[in-house]
């Protein structure tokens, strides 16, 4: 299996791409702050899942990288909350993306709790 075939990766990629499209409308003064931060954290979720999967033979590394991916996912939710508070996104868009992000979090958690299903050993 390729890391791109992991459901957590696929769903995380969708979230990151939605955020990319959404942030195109953010004000120019946010380019190097909020826009950059939310894009980087959302992209980091999938990249860190990919790293974890490639190192799945090492259970502690697998677990560590997946918890990093989960942390990046939570960071993304925090940046989305700022986006809402600054009125850059609607409540509907916020709820839509955060729900998708929560789903990614559940999938990451499943990987953490079931490493053997992904070619890793139990810790």
Structural notes for this entry:
The structure is a single chain. The chain has 123 residues and is mainly α. The protein is 74% helix and 0% strand. The longest helix is centred in the middle third of the chain and has 27 residues, at 59-85. The mean pLDDT is 96.
What distance lies between the first and last C-alpha atoms, to the nearest angstrom? 22 Å
Helix content estimate: over 70%
Number of helices: 4
List SSEs in N-to-C order: HHHH
Task: Record keyword descriptors for this entry.
123 residues, 4 helices, 0% strand
How are the elements arranged and paired?
Blueprint: H1 7-23, H2 31-54, H3 59-85, H4 91-113
Helix pairs in contact: 1-2, 1-4, 2-3, 3-4
Compact description:
This protein has 123 residues and is mainly α. The protein has helices at residues 7-23, 31-54, 59-85, 91-113.
